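Need residues for this backbone.
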């Protein structure tokens, strides 16, 4: 991002060495720990400082003990700033690459959109255009209601980051009685994920890239909740009319949006739904991965066998 500091069957076209010492394009031997859980909007200097303070509590030591070498504390903060700049640059590259691609994906093939929807000029995006406006309209509101549409366009209705837009739902269909139905299972998000993490050419299922994608370079073999939240935040920003991404921008409220998604995807009470969602995602992105295997149905033969085995083991442990 530019920085200031449809259903599961829906067709989808289109060893000990420090990570800081790895040369560019060096392939990780095993999954990069940062891939499994990364906050896209993290303040890295604060993260490192808080990490040291946490160690101080756990080890019954002081901050000075961990930074005994002269200038080490400043060096740690400098490293955090460099990591933050690198993350910001990566987000910016992702946004720049996604902007024209997302417009191509949302415009129906062979149709002429009026008014025109520029691929790189965002001023007419967001609620200013009927196509992006419908996608960004909060799922609980009706874009076809003229008064609602006008209030969104004029700013009378202010959309917060935890009001999720309609593009998060398969076929743009939100069911208030079953809000999990179709949530985060859209072709648009799958395309964006492939574009960022595998390669732009993989969106058309005809890989043409000569270099390994980000996922392969970092040993990423499964989709995570954090990566889904990141991609969704990227797509939301591309669709909106704001030209500069800001964590504190009250218009886009991107940080609140990102964390609201992540909070749901990491909620232990939603583990069943999240597990099914990640299985669906991995079947689209990493179909050969073990993470793409479905959990057996509760009434299937396999589940019955496993239940019987679990019961026998439990009985044996009691006796």
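Answer:
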């Amino acid at each position: 991002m530019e920085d200031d500091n449809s259903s599961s069957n829906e067709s989808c076209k289109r060893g000990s060495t420090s990570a800081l010492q790895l040369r560019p394009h060096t392939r990780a031997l095993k999954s990069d720990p940062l891939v499994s859980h990364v906050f896209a909007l993290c303040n890295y200097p604060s993260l490192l400082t808080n990490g040291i303070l946490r160690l101080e509590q756990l080890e019954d030591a002081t901050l000075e003990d961990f930074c005994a070498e002269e200038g080490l504390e400043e060096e740690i903060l400098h490293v955090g700033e460099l990591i933050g700049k690198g993350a910001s640059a990566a987000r910016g590259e992702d946004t720049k690459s996604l902007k024209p691609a997302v417009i191509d994906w949302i415009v129906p093939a062979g149709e002429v959109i009026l008014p025109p929807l520029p691929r790189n000029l965002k001023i007419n995006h967001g609620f200013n255009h009927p196509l992006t406006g419908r996608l960004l309209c909060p799922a609980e509101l009706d874009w076809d209601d003229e008064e609602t549409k006008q209030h969104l366009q004029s700013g009378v209705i202010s959309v917060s980051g935890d009001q999720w837009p309609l593009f998060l739902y398969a076929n743009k269909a939100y069911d208030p009685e079953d809000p999990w139905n179709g949530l985060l299972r859209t072709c648009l998000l799958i395309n964006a994920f492939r574009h960022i993490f595998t390669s732009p050419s993989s969106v058309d299922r005809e890989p043409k890239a000569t270099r390994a994608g980000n996922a392969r370079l970092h040993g990423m073999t499964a989709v995570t909740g954090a990566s889904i939240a990141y991609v969704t935040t990227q797509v939301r920003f591309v669709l909106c009319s704001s030209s500069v991404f800001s964590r504190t921008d009250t218009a886009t409220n991107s940080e609140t949006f990102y964390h609201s998604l992540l909070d749901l995807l990491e909620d232990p009470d939603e583990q069943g739904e999240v597990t099914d969602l990640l299985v669906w995602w991995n079947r689209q992105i990493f179909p050969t991965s073990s993470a793409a295997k479905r959990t057996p149905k509760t009434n299937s033969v396999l589940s019955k066998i496993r239940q019987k085995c679990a019961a026998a083991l439990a009985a044996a442990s009691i006796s």
